[in-house]
Give the backbone structure.
Amino acid sequence: MKKWLCVLAVSSVFIGCEEKEDDQIYSAQICLNSATAGTVDACLAKISGVSSARAFVLRCSAEFIRANITTSTIVTAIENIEDNDAGNTEDPTIEFYNQFSFTSTASADTAVNYCSASGSEGLKLLALSAKTATVIKYDILGGTLDLNALTNYTPDPDNNSTDKANLISIGETILDIAPIACNQGDSLQKTEVCDNINRAKEGVTVPTDPNDQAAWDNYYSQIGENFYNNMKTSDN
């Protein structure tokens, strides 16, 4: 309601509304610059009711702070996936996703929603990566993401509904990642992440009926299962 009152007001009041939002955004940004997981909510309170793209950039960033995913952590993870050391026998996406995992899919979903609303494809990519990591590490593997854990557990979507739901989530999420990061010239296009996504899609038939939910669930589940299995091996 406040937003519409601002729009309908005379220009001098409208400018005042914009200035107030700028002050709120600035105050929240300064707060987040030194925030920890325990203090991030106090920073977000400063932009309560603000629905601009800039506000959602801050909310998105706050979710990473809440999960103790720092800028240096993100930089290190991206460097590792881009370096893709030839001597590494473990799929580099394992270390990449270990850096990005939240502690619950609910937290990851919140980050995806906020980062998507920010209008930044880069932030949306980070959040989608975090969601993929979280589903694999916590929902499937119980908190440990390494080659041994991946190898020792094979999801059974045909007989385990929880596995099926998790694989569907992975399939949907990596298909959202692909158009952001895996086209020619994109940030991760030549990395193992995109190679695994592309291989996961190979040979999987896209359903023709948009209303056939069972067919779409099987489609996403198969792609998620392929992606999971791809992480057990490396092309290095």
